[in-house]
């Protein structure tokens, strides 16, 4: 049976510092593991301030999902995910604008999926795919946390499968144990 360990680290360091330390090329897994090891050692020795939460889970994590089904959307129709509202328009100019065809649900669903994936914020939390007028939204992080992402529609031409992404299971679902270093 697969098991999951999730670490959440809270640090006084800047986001830029942490990205430089830990967002290494995926071909450099060993270097990333060593950098993480040094970071925990620095927290444990008191050289750096920080704390971390540890969660374990026995089940293999599953990503949460939801769908939007489109039926002849028109300009001004809208739907929302994670607090970001996407609006169909014939002249898209903003990151949240989706070009509407109006006569082709499959094309409109593809445009909506592309807008979600390209969005600077929500695109980091979910992925979107489309097929035959249906957009499927999937949480990028597997486990129960994806079940907290809200999704809705504002018009009768868009039907949302549920109020939140659902079906996210497993992963880090046990009680959190917190550890602090030099705080």
What does the secondary structure layout of this molecule look like, with pairings?
Layout: E1 4-11, H1 15-22, H2 29-45, E2 50-57, E3 65-70, E4 78-81, E5 84-89, E6 97-99, H3 105-118, E7 126-131, E8 134-139, E9 151-153, E10 158-160, E11 177-181
Parallel strand pairs: 5-6
Antiparallel strand pairs: 1-2, 2-11, 3-8, 3-10, 4-5, 4-9, 7-8
Largest sheet, in brief, is: 4 strands, antiparallel
How many structurally independent domains?
Answer: 2
What fraction, in percent, of the residue positions are helical? 10-25%
What form results from the Cα inertia axes?
elongated
Q: Average pLDDT value?
A: 82
Radius of gyration: 20 Å
Low-confidence stretches: none
Overall description:
- It is a single chain.
- The chain is an alpha+beta fold and 183 residues long.
- The chain has 2 domains: 4-60 and 176-181, no CATH class; 65-160, no CATH class.
- It has helices spanning 15-22, 29-45, 105-118; strands spanning 4-11, 50-57, 65-70, 78-81, 84-89, 97-99, 126-131, 134-139, 151-153, 158-160, 177-181.
- It has a 4-stranded antiparallel sheet, covered by helices on one side. The chain has a 4-stranded mixed sheet with strand order 6-5-4-9, covered by helices on one side. A 3-stranded antiparallel sheet has the order 1-2-11.
- The longest helix has 17 residues, at 29-45.
- The model has no long low-confidence stretch (mean pLDDT 82).
């Amino acid at each position: 049976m697969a098991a999951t360990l999730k670490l959440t680290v809270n640090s006084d360091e800047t986001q830029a510092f942490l990205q430089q330390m830990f967002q290494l090329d995926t071909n450099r897994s060993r270097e990333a593991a060593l950098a993480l090891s040094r970071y925990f050692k620095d927290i444990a020795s008191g050289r750096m301030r920080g704390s971390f939460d540890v969660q374990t889970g026995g089940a293999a994590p599953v990503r949460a999902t939801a769908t939007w089904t489109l039926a002849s959307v028109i300009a001004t129709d809208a739907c929302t995910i994670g607090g970001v509202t996407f609006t169909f328009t014939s002249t898209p100019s903003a990151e949240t604008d989706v070009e509407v065809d109006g006569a082709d649900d499959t094309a409109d669903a593809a445009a909506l999926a592309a807008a979600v994936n390209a969005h600077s914020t929500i695109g980091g939390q979910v992925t979107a795919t489309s097929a035959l007028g249906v957009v499927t939204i999937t949480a990028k992080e597997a486990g129960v946390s994806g079940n907290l992402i809200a999704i809705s529609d504002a018009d009768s031409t868009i039907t949302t499968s549920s109020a939140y992404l659902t079906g996210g299971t497993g992963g880090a679902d046990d009680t959190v144990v917190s550890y602090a270093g030099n705080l």
